Amino acid sequence: MARSIRRFRVRAWGVMLCVLTSCGFDSPVPTTSAAIESVGMLAGAGRQALALQQLESWSAKGSAVASRELALAYLLDTNKAPQARPIFFLAAKQGDAPAAFMLGEAARLGTLQAPDLKSAWDWYEVAAQNNHAEAALMLGRMAANGEGVAANKSNAVRWLIKSARLGSPQAMFLLFVHYSQPGTQESEWALARHLLYESAHKHYPPAMQALALALEGGDYGFKKDRQQAIFMMKEAGEESRNRWNVR
């Protein structure tokens, strides 16, 4: 297995070297996003001029992924940073969900423009409609808090459900909180338990902590298991320190 991975990496780097040297900048746009993103890593973190020129060529040929990677590379260069936003815009308009999400983040945080929650909502919505899980999560949170749009609980739940279906453990946990409120029906309690279990087993620390407490007290229909509760709480602490920026 390890030998196969090494062979794959050698072939992949061979393709990249060909693209950046002998193949020239008229090479066709790669068929996979991963190949373009590999060149993006060389252009950004690696600061390799040939990689940057290759992204510029692919972007000019209409590759949304290349445009996004080019914009990310430009952000790391003080002289080119002002050019990043219109290139992100181009990539997003071409259907690149990560680019649309990045524009949403920029509008919300005010990094590439003045803070604008309505613009953030619009870009997150573009990304979410193209199945970007974190964008759908942000729409759920903004709808719940009345940011960029009027507060609307049903709208928030709708976007959180989409995010959860796309695999977001944070969305799963927020839906667990929603469905586990007192007075909910038994079917919703069952859904809440499922969402908590799935979120925790995707290693989302708040869900892991909540599941640990549920196992400790036998809550939400979980069977009491003190040993498993202690283990889960310890794992939640490790995950929180090592992997997650919990918002």
Overall description:
- By secondary structure, the protein is mainly α.
- It has a domain at 171-247.
- Helices cover 70% and strands 0% of the residues.
- It has 13 helices and no strands.
- The chain has helices spanning 2-20, 33-43, 49-60, 64-75, 84-93, 97-109, 117-129, 133-145, 153-165, 169-179, 186-200, 205-217, 226-242.
- α2 packs across α3.
- The longest helix is centred in the N-terminal third of the chain and has 19 residues, at 2-20.
Rounded Rg = 22 Å
Strand runs, count: 0
What string, H for helix and E for strand, traces the elements in order? HHHHHHHHHHHHH
Q: Which strand-content bin applies to the residues?
A: under 5%
Distance between the termini: 37 Å
Q: What's the tally of helices? A: 13
Poorly predicted runs are 1-14
For the largest beta-sheet, the strand count, sense and barrel status come to: none
Q: Strand pairing plus helix content: what structural class?
A: mainly alpha
| Spatial shape | elongated
Helix percent reads 55-70%
Mean pLDDT across all amino acids? 88
